[in-house]
């Protein structure tokens, strides 16, 4: 089989060697440089990549991705779309070949989107940007996705257990263009519930609370918005915006709706626990963190947040137990939180304080 990696880039010279080392298991590496002002293109060529330099105006991620896909040889069997700030763990091709058949259209694999300061994994979910050469196109100006545009039915998606892709982004790069592109995306496809959700989330990130609430309510009202995980996320973001505007009762009610929508997720329980923590409602904190911890299998979707599977549930419980005078339970929770983040100085101090309080009480 012929395996080709394709990518887009701009001003990413510092990532070239690491990325090319990671992608070296492919038969060919094809890159569209969209206007680097550094020596990214030259360094890629020196490492054996086939590079085309071409500006994309007006800028759209889908246009750039599709142009880079056009550069892939027609006789390629498998296309692997990555970015230069991403790295495969060694051995990915062997696993890919083991699961690929002529009937396969796409491959799902594990993706670590972010890492904690101590190097441990943060946000983790599964993506499927490995696909067959023909019949697929990228859609949407930002948060672009692959869509089947070929004849007949697309091949089925298989899971490649063991393929791991890590994301190590450049923190200096701005995401300032995302909002305008998301607004354009919703304008072009107002019926697309995914775009609507992302736009509402972007408003939340920017502190545009009323825009966030209005947009996410539109998302929830859409007939196509049926994925419970994403619906619950919209409810949670409405709650966060409401709390930021001082509407704490509304925030609580939206969190309760999110729990009812997706009781299989930790995030709604922990968001509500945090709201109650801020209000000093300790028994509520203990109840909802306990509900979260009853969920022991981490979902494979991007909705799963790092904090929910890190120290936060135990950290909140430690404080709530401490505030209600249950020192043994408080220390047990504090130690569990510290076990998940052993280098966290605040958690270390909390455990020490609780232990001393338990001895003197």
What does this structure look like?
With 361 residues, the protein is an alpha/beta fold. The chain has 2 domains: 3-167, Spore Coat Polysaccharide Biosynthesis Protein SpsA, Chain A (Alpha-Beta Complex), CATH 3.90.550; 178-279, Serine Threonine Protein Phosphatase 5, Tetratricopeptide repeat (Alpha Horseshoe), CATH 1.25.40. The chain is built from 14 helices and 10 strands. The chain has helices at 16-23, 40-46, 61-70, 92-99, 178-188, 193-205, 209-221, 228-244, 248-261, 266-278, 282-293, 312-323, 327-340, 345-360, and strands spanning 3-9, 28-33, 50-53, 78-81, 86-88, 104-112, 124-132, 136-139, 145-148, 156-167. An 8-stranded mixed β-sheet has the order 3-2-1-4-7-6-10-5, with helices on both faces. A two-stranded antiparallel ribbon has the order 8-9. Helix 8 (228-244) packs parallel to helix 10. The radius of gyration is 23 Å and the shape is globular.
SSE arrangement:
Layout: E1 3-9, H1 16-23, E2 28-33, H2 40-46, E3 50-53, H3 61-70, E4 78-81, E5 86-88, H4 92-99, E6 104-112, E7 124-132, E8 136-139, E9 145-148, E10 156-167, H5 178-188, H6 193-205, H7 209-221, H8 228-244, H9 248-261, H10 266-278, H11 282-293, H12 312-323, H13 327-340, H14 345-360
Helix pairs in contact: 5-6, 6-7, 6-8, 7-8, 8-9, 8-10, 9-10, 10-11, 10-12, 11-12, 12-13, 13-14
What's this entry about, in short?
With 361 residues, this protein is of the alpha/beta class. The chain is built from 14 helices and ten strands. It folds into two domains: 3-167, Spore Coat Polysaccharide Biosynthesis Protein SpsA, Chain A (Alpha-Beta Complex); 178-279, Tetratricopeptide repeat domain (Serine Threonine Protein Phosphatase 5, Tetratricopeptide repeat), CATH 1.25.40.10.
